[in-house]
User: Fold these one by one.
Assistant:
Number 1:
Amino acid sequence: MKLVGTERVKRGMAEMQKGGVIMDVINAEQAKIAEAAGAVAVMALERVPSDIRKAGGVARMADPRIVEEVMNAVTIPVMAKARIGHIVEARVLEAMGVDYIDESEVLTPADEEFHLLKSDYTVPFVCGCRDLGEAARRIGEGASMLRTKGEPGTGNIVEAVRHMRKVNAQVRRVVGMSTDELMTEAKLLGAPFEVLVEIKKLGRLPVVNFAAGGIATPADAALMMELGADGVFVGSGIFKSENPEKFARAIVEATTHYKDYKLIAEISKELGTPMKGIDIATLSDSERMQERGW
Amino acid sequence: MVMWRIGVLALQGAVREHIDQIEKLGCEPVLVKSVEDLKDLNGLILPGGESTTIRKLLDRYELLNPIRTLAQNGLPIFGTCAGLILLADEIVGYESPHLGLMDVVVERNSYGRQVDSFEVELSIKDIGEDIPAVFIRAPHIVSVGKEVEVLAKQDERIVLARDRHFLGCSFHPELTEDVRILKYFVEMIKQCHNTSLAKLNSI
């Protein structure tokens, strides 16, 4: 019997993206540049995170026409963002045939108490996390892929590094624990017990974990791979740079060959000015997107 | 027992899953990222991933021709999903193939988008029954050449076929615990090895 939307099918889709770069795009032209540069998927948006920051106000799901335009422009998978807890935005994107939904803190949350029950959907979801508790809660709700939250739209890698290191350190701790210690750890982390049991059994997270939020250069992408990311999301970095085509290719190469430092030096030459970047300390609490979701 | 060295093209995609399966069968996995890694392989696996991305990286690291030459000299290759697309002689809607080694015509994303991705159990000729197969934005084999053996179909579409020392499937056996298809590929490696030894001895 043919089964759709199973855990294996949804998680498997993310496994196929490993070692790749997922790029934010806002129209068909950018999507084609991303595909030609070797992106494994594109994220169709109305505005990239740094512009969302600038614009302020409420950020919502993109206009379906933009998503459709991007879907028609490329053969690689197309992802789109729904607001945290916005059941209908997610259902609309699913009905449109989007390949992956990002329940994203980059948009203004629709629900400050509950995330989506992602296991209810046929389409797979990716969610952000800052630590293992958050990662495990999202997996418990049915997320098939994780990413660091970082601090989107800042061009500053520091938060993504913090989140990746934290999750991986906590995973190592859980893997090293004896099973009778897991319930207490679940309580301390605010994590579903069953997910911790699965992590211990596998010796790793049961879904892939990409880096996202603040990746601005090829070296940033390589750094995140070095720290154990399965792949990277690049948001504002690419199409806010001087030469997006060259920049996008450089990010892809740096991600594939993240330990080849001579190559990274070579491809980092004359890329032009990367996005300016923001010191996280200058952001007020209300400007910090990573605090959205729980 | 001979410890076969099986390479997995490791530019992008589901590499770890293949490595795990190779180890399960007691063979030696080799990550292939550059031309040097192709040395002394007994077989090569082209994993699932994004075929357009993998192709671009094959070009950039000048791996396409070395792999093609090894294949033409008898290196057994197994392609899963994107790997099948890389192997095919013809891709529907595209002017030229990638490696162009296997006498099959394939169509990309032929089951629809991700929401149409599915899993199913297949019975496969010479391999076994109830083999779990995960289809993710999968291609399928539209037609095959005369010498090609069709090993499995799903909904009347060809999803696993063998052309001489090339094996290609449109699904992902590596996402399951079942290693029977990989075992079949290892048998192919053995056969190829014995045939080339016999050839050497007859010279």
Number 2:
Amino acid sequence: MRITLNGETRECPEGTTIERLLDLYKIDKSRIAVELNLHIVPKKELSARMLRDADVLEVVTFVGGG
Amino acid sequence: MLAADKIEKRLENTPLKIGRYEFTSRLFVGTGKYPSMEIMKDALEASGAEVVTVAVRRVKINETTSLLDYIDTRRYKILPNTAGCYSAEEAIRTARLAREAGMSDMIKLEVLGDEKTLLPDPVETLKATEVLVKEGFTVLVYTSDDPIIARKLEDAGATSVMPAGAPIGSGQGILNKNNIRIILESAKVPIIVDAGVGTASDVSLAMELGCEGVLLNTGIAHAKDPVCMAKAMKLACEAGRLAFLSGRIPKRLYAKASSPEKDF
């Protein structure tokens, strides 16, 4: 299936959880926020939430700013 | 106790209160646009800041270092901003993401009007403030130096109102100190000058007027020597605060001799 991760289309196997996807891309889960189809997914739900085809995922963190 | 120590204590004993948070340093420093992460780290240290601002952006896949590797979060309180948002809706979304990322319920709310001026959009800013206050955020809101909108933001529940001294990154200093004075006259929440600060005297001026703090980024990050400038800003902030607390002499049109009249 195909999902969109931070604006880019990515292939991922059926049954992938958000946590699995983050691990796959080596994203440190301690300093991020995840939004699935414009709804925030609380950290404790990342391991349970399965991705579906056409899901749009945003993963944000902190960068330098004023 | 030595007189100099008493003065130090006076600064420590009158902390800046932002909602349920208290800070001894009244200088808030941004983390953007430094020549390197190492210089940023040293500059933050030299500034004495206890609050540092950050922006919220997409995680870059395969990037191994993170900004927060260079910021000791036990030492600095992280203040995420909503920079780059041009509507209340976008800013609210960004604020919620920032809170979820788990650093703080404090948000530096900024909703900009356009890319050329980067001036705040007061209507959208007010809308976003109302929503975020209801959602329990500690809202520090960036705004123009207009006293009426500042009052409305305070009435909407902002924890701190942060008028711009001058446009973001312009380094022009405090363009309308009379407006800042009018804002200060009626404000019951801390007023922090945010944006436009170019050099140390701009910080001093804001603090001498009675502002509770100053937030700046470019003035340090783009100085030729950011670490040295950070120290200068720290000293200016303390100097301005002490001058305010001391009560300055009124300005006079004519001279007044400091020495007694000559009597021989």
Number 3:
Amino acid sequence: MKRLILTIVALSLCFFAKAQTVIDTLSTDALNELLIEQVERLAEDSDEDVDYEELLEQYIFLVENPVNLNSDDIIKLLELHLINVFQYEELQKYRRYYGDFLFLEELEMVEGFDEQTLAIIAPIVQIGKDNSRDKITLSKMARYGKHQVVGRYEQILEHQQGYDPISDSALLAKPNSRFLGSPQRYQLKYTYNYRNRIRAGFVLEKDPGEMFFTDHVSDTIKALLGDKYHRGFDFIGFHLYAKDLGIVKAAVLGDYQLSFGQGLTMWTGMNFGKIETGSSVMKQGRGITPKSSASEYSFMRGTAVTLGGGPFRGTVFYSNRKIDANITETDTLEAAEYVSSLQETGYHRTIGELLDRYAIRQQVVGGHLAYAVSHFEVGYTLHHTWLSAKLQLSPSNYNQFYFQGTQLTNQGIDFKYVKGKFAFFGEGAMSFNTDSTTLLSTSTGATALSRFAGLLGMTVKPTGYLNFTIFYHDYGKAYQNLFSNAFCEGSRNQGQRGVYLGVEVAPAPYWNLLAYADHFRFTWLTSQAYAPSWGHDYYLRLSHSFNRRTTAYLQIRSKTKMKNSTDGLVFSHYPIFYTKNSVRFNINYGFANGLVFSNKAEYAHYRNDDGSNSQGFFICQDVSYKPENKPFSLTFRYALFDTKDYDSRVYAYENDVLYSFSVPALYGKGMRVYLLGKWKPFNSLTLYTRIGSIIYTDRDEISSGLTLIEGKHKTDLKVEAIWKL
Amino acid sequence: MKKPLLLIVFITLTFSLFAHDFVNPIGGRAAAMGGCSVASRGLWAMQNNPAGMAYLDKFSLGLYYENRWLLPETAYKSAALAVPTKFGCLGLSFNQFGSSKYSENKFGLAYAKDFGPYLQIGLQLDYLLISLGNEYGRQSAVTFELGIQSQVTEKLRLGTYIFNPVSFKLEQSINQEKPPIVFRFGAAYQFTKDFVGLCEVEKNTDHEGVSLRGGLEYEVLKNFYLRAGAQTNPGLLSFGLGYEIRFARIDVAAQLHQILGASVQIGMIFSIGKRA
């Protein structure tokens, strides 16, 4: 009651003063901009192509299914790093003191919720009754459940060399010289959601080059492929998920992701890498989450259940699925005996890729037990992995401590303590690999200690608008884990250690400064550097929102690492330093009629210690027209890029059809244009089309090998239909 | 594997030994905050920016020891004595880097005066002495360092400092060596009563490029400080703790260099007298 009066007083004050509440003055696309920045940073940091769809799946889910501020679902905001751990605590405290939220504007009164946070979360929260204890009946499920179907088609319009016609004999001589299928990508996805408590769905996908129903190959190729011959959708996934059914906190059947603690022992799927919320690198395990994306690597397929009671929460999981692997030795009767690598791309386009498809079986069984009291949480994770064939990497110095063999056990303890202005977090983990190959490498210098990995961090918030983080990680060179995804430099939670120091300040309203310094060291060789190496990463970002429709940021980054010298005169590899510096400025500004302009400029400088260096420049103008109360919108980009080589490449996020994300690496000289259109003919149907092109001025052929295009331009087309019921 | 690493360590060390090291930021507080010191106040300001000791109102004695890279040969020792008077604050200081085989010494006589909240000025006259062991003798020079600080607003203080602006030659040096000119500029911002953020930039003519520094200090409990900082060129991350009682304070710090490892710093200050 007290709170109700308080709220009414506060609100009426706002109205009488004819002032807008903060919520009304917020930038409309803050969440989107946050994700764009995160995704761009991730693209810069990862060497491989990242499947953003899988990464952003949960954010999109939130946009469509806002979190009820009066339910325990608010932890989702923390899990997805939209609020920090202190804000989460304040939110809990507010609810404890004043009871349920009645108005969204009340959020402004929660301590630590600044304009930026409000702008990010306002569109994805709602006020409702906590219905997590309601009975679920079939009739309710039929009435209130939401169905959604998404169909998408994608294609590079230019002819690529991999689709050239070829005779059987030539193909047999060079089996990987052609794609067997057609150049289209198709995806069909269905999801059902009943109040976030029951979810189900399936996804079908065919990548470019994979064989669809309409594709044919000759009998000789068919014979060569044997039982690997496959047409139709290459990837099929489904999930059935329920949560909050009495003591069953969550249960899943089908495809799912697991994440516990700080991700050192078990964290499938992707995460944003270094910075999570503000300066903090603290992660929040999500437990079991259903997987609805078409990502083909790093997920679980099977079943998992979380039971909870009092301060305890226990999860057991089992996964059994076939994964891609490169077979080196095959027994005629049995399946593969040895595999030389596990394939992560999910592509099955050529004969070679098809032969690797689902070559071995991976089984994972394990559990997690967590104990949580008011400020403290501790968890224990244990899991065991079997491969149906022995993994034997081609021997090299840098990979001698990598996982090899058939069985691997991992266990770890994680903890979290959040009170007042302090948050402490950490995880310690170790791996057991009983196979002889590793015993061999143990004798070559991997001590028992090097099978351990640990991380420890502290985030402090001296005052509401300021926080800083000190973080240390040390992962042993023989710490092996197929599902580890904690803070690291590069992509491997193995053989590295480092110290991170980050600070975030909001020196004035609508201003935000984020800076970090990260020093890291690889304690063993990497595939890039044939000696232990080190480097550092400095980052600074200053952002400001001038008003509701105008936001800008300036980002400066300098990263130094080591890699083998490519100097031809040197007879042995030795690592040298290389540094990439970049400056980026971005501004978005809109007008009342629905027109939004956006500019981005980036300068990148790459320097190698052997003397070579290169520079890159990118500039773009985006125009989008999103009239209110009209069923359509249009987005257009014109960009120029000029970089000397791949080293000084520039990553630029592009607007895309819903549920799809592209952050192409642009290098060379040329321009990039695209046009994205959205049309909503009925309430239940939305159509998207995007056509984009890269036009090079410095080359006559694009890419190489199977994806070679003879010409100066590369055009991509995407069409998507979303049907909601 | 160890050997090339050792070699690198040796070479890097040798390089840093070529550069004179008279003006390393002194004090456990500065060391813990990435070397940020130009806008700081206190006894150690005598060595980092003499203007910062203008406000001192107690008779203070400070001792500082840095075990750089945990090698006794590269230790850095410092002592300072401040005597507040009616006309400003007077100080005596001594720094020594190195061992008996090679050492760099700086003897200083400092004076700082407070011209109201907007301006403090400090000056230190220095006698520099490089001792190259028995066979090679000694080199020496006389120079000075100058600094100003200004409390621009209640929360923001700026500082500028220059060491050896005229760059005198070292007497008896074979290659006409000169001590470096060092210029620092920086700010301290008091975000809240218990939280300070510092940043500064330093140019040392003996080093290529400039060094950027940032540091923060949080008073976790009353008189108990937690500090962290970062510095580029050379890249260092640093951490430290400080504790203050009525007549003494102790500050410890650790600086982590990526190649050379850790350095440990400890500083103590004893003060006698009443606050004026």
Number 4:
Amino acid sequence: MQFDRFGFAIYGNTEESQDDIRYHDYDEGSVDSNFLTTQRVWEKIVNNWEKYTNGSPNKEMVKMVYHDLVDVNISEYCIDHAIITLSKYECSSSIESSNMTAKTAARISIMRQIMVDIGRSFPTHRKFMGDLAEGKEGRAQLFRLLMVYALYNPSIGYCQGMAFIAGMLLMHMNEEDAFWSMVSLFEKSKYLRGYFDKSLSRIHRNAEVFWRILEQKMPKLWHHLDDMKIHPLMFITQWFMTLYTSLPCWDTVLCIWDMTLFEGTSTLFRIAITIMMQLEDELLGATNLTDLMPCILKISPKIVKKSKFIPAVRKTVLPEWEIEAVQAIIHEDKADEVAKRKRLEPELDELGSRDKRSRIDETQAVVTSDNQVSESSLLQKLAGIISGTKEIKKHKARRTSQITPKRRQNDIRRRRAKPVMIEMKNLGNVKVDNLASNVSMLNNPLYSDAKSRSINNQENTFSFRKELNNDQLFKTARNDWFCSSAITNSPDVEMSDFNKQSVRLKLELENVD
Amino acid sequence: MDEVHTTKVVLLGRTGSGKTSLIVRYISSVFSENVKPTIGAAFSKKTVQLIHGEERKQVVLAIWDTAGDERYESMAPLYYRNSSAAIICFDLADRQSYNKVDFWVKELVEKVEQNCKLYICGTKTDLLAEYGGPLKRAVGPTEVMAYAKKLNAKFVETSSKSNYGIDDLFKLVAADFAGFTLCEAPPIEDSLRLQEPNQTDVNEKSSCCF
């Protein structure tokens, strides 16, 4: 068996190759050195792990859980057997013939689910494939990682998609470090917090945001897709929730990961928009859904080849504030809808705990019934954003290249607040209070947290501010925010991934205290 | 010139029940152990030729393969809405996955997808003891058939590994959509014979009435 430089099996022209999504013809040149430097940066991060994890949560606890799992011997060398055993336990628990508690039953169900998935996560990568020791151990690690996480954070548990992220981490670091990386990836709002929760709330919100951004940036394509009744969740779910590991070119995937770790989830939008740009002609040429869907869902290596795709990503301008502003608009629209509905149909209140599956239906129903109203106000709001963009361009031009970090930080805050301020003007006096709190949210990476909380509990927007005053949280968030914005906005035009990563690392270490 | 019709088909069912393998077998005629979990959904299409006397029809099956993880259930309406057929899969050796069938049936009935024909598909026959596999049936065929009859659904059994019943299933879906009737009974009759039919047998069964 032959493997490519990233460890993926090359099947040649055998039967398996038909099902192999990986493209092995990588671009020559920078890849190797890039890979090495990425690894070096990872090493540094790992060596300074104490600083990142801050000693809490309790490592000992996690170690204990690991040992337990290894002792049970369930993970190591008998996955099929384990699946069958677990299924059996799962069944008997549902029949209530045993004394199993609900908690145990739930755990067994999660275990079984993970077992089923680990055999098919990166099944062509040497670390996870085959019957040799390496593959078995790789799968065992993957199992332990996911299972321990499910125990560590039961409110999230396990969700399909996580295995790809855990798998990627295991390709680059040891098990325990991979675990802590996973914890920060899944729990920091800058990264994937909310993507895997029980209602998958964040991806639903992201889909709406992406759709509006696409409408604004590529109206022709947007109309074309909309006419075919394509919903963004049909494709961005796969992209966002596996951090693009489903793309065929692995060198491109690594680059995307670099950018995402550096800039946070706004990169995910940037990549998605870039893919749409690259696909635009092909998609516009497709006259029906059956021709169009395969182009988006099975992206050809031609489209995402690193030498062509990554420069295109760098050219795509989609700053974080723009995404957040769109998010705020949608949030406002929702609040409006809720208020309107409350006025019109008070009985709907009783449906507070309504079935989550009907949510998509209902949102659409509301949109159609209020079509005209929401459309015109949306236009107004978008106009606000666009004029905001112009303001910012001017603003940026005025900026001198020698700004102190402190000034730069304030500068950035002002720029982020601006579009929302403009939007406020456009909206007149409607809900200024609410918007003002949105502005303060926008200035903080904790924003998405606060937002999800305020959606859950419309009355209680103040809990967010209380949390802002909590020194520790605010400090970390501010440091995070400062580092990333300082680098993204630095006058050096095209920094390589390596430079960005190491600068960020340096800055982050400096700002720890 | 043949008439061409496109129809939307959706696959539902518990995680690991073999939905993606079924599609991969049908579309690419291979069985792969390397089918990755479906995140969100996947899309495939295949054209089925139907011949009925003088009448010829082409049916393009636009097939949505959905994620089995319960958390993705909130997205399912995107895929089953306006489907003309729903294939609800369950693993014949896994009682839990059979229990999930009822969930999807209720969901479809509740959301008033009245034009959506239901197909209940028991997967992985190759794993059953009666076909020489290691596992016992978790649910008897008479139970499933009674259930399917009550719903006016069709019940088929398949194996993606040994390529059993799959072409038949999709031919049946296409023929039902086009209003054709197959002269042979649906493949469940085969499975009740409790033996694996050979390749040529399957091919004969899949032809339509003339």
